[in-house]
């Protein structure tokens, strides 16, 4: 099944960028590169995101990046069950975006 994502789906309304690929991993790599280059968004490398979700069960991102990462997972149908995407920000506390929170 072909995966695709549009940058405007991530909240960048004026952006026409769209990427498609056979796997979520391929699409994730392209959108991460685009977000960094065109929107100056400090998104972790695609391989870091996938490794954290597959092995550690956690991914820590800046609070401002959390909604973007959450939309990425949703749009690409990346399973979050049992995994956590954590944001750190002004509160100094980790905030779970999706999945189960054991705290």
Which features would summarize this protein structure in a list?
single chain; 103 residues; alpha+beta; three-stranded mixed beta sheet; two-stranded antiparallel sheet; 3 helices; 5 strands
Describe the structure in brief:
The chain is globular, with a radius of gyration of 13 Å. It contains three helices and five strands. By secondary structure, it is an alpha+beta fold.
Descriptive account of the structure:
The protein is α+β, with helices and mostly antiparallel strands. It has one domain. 36% of the residues lie in helices and 19% in strands. The protein has helices at 24-39, 46-56, 66-75, and strands spanning 3-6, 18-21, 58-62, 84-88, 95-96. A three-stranded mixed beta sheet has the order 3-4-5. Strands 1-2 form a two-stranded antiparallel sheet. The longest helix has 16 residues, at 24-39. The chain is globular. 22% of the residues are buried.
> In terms of structural class, how would the helical and strand content be classed?
alpha+beta
Form type: globular
Number of strands: 5
Distance between the termini: 36 Å
Low-confidence stretches: 88-103
Q: Largest sheet, described in full?
A: 3 strands, mixed
Mean pLDDT: 75
Total domain count:
1
Helix share, percent: 25-40%
* N-to-C series of helices and strands: EEHHEHEE
Strand order of the largest sheet: 3-4-5
**Which oligomerization state do the chains in this entry correspond to?**
single chain
Radius of gyration: 13 Å
Amount of beta strand: 15-25%
The total count of helices amounts to 3
């Amino acid at each position: 099944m072909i995966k695709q994502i549009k940058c405007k789906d991530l909240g960048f309304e004026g952006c026409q960028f769209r990427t498609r690929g056979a796997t979520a991993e391929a699409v994730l790599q392209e959108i991460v590169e685009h977000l960094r280059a065109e929107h100056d968004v400090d998104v972790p490398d695609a391989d870091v995101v996938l490794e954290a979700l597959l092995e550690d069960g956690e991914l820590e991102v800046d609070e401002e990046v959390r909604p973007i990462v959450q939309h990425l997972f949703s749009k690409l149908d990346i399973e979050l069950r049992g995994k956590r995407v954590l944001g750190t920000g002004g509160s100094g506390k980790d905030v779970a975006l999706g999945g189960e929170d054991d705290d």
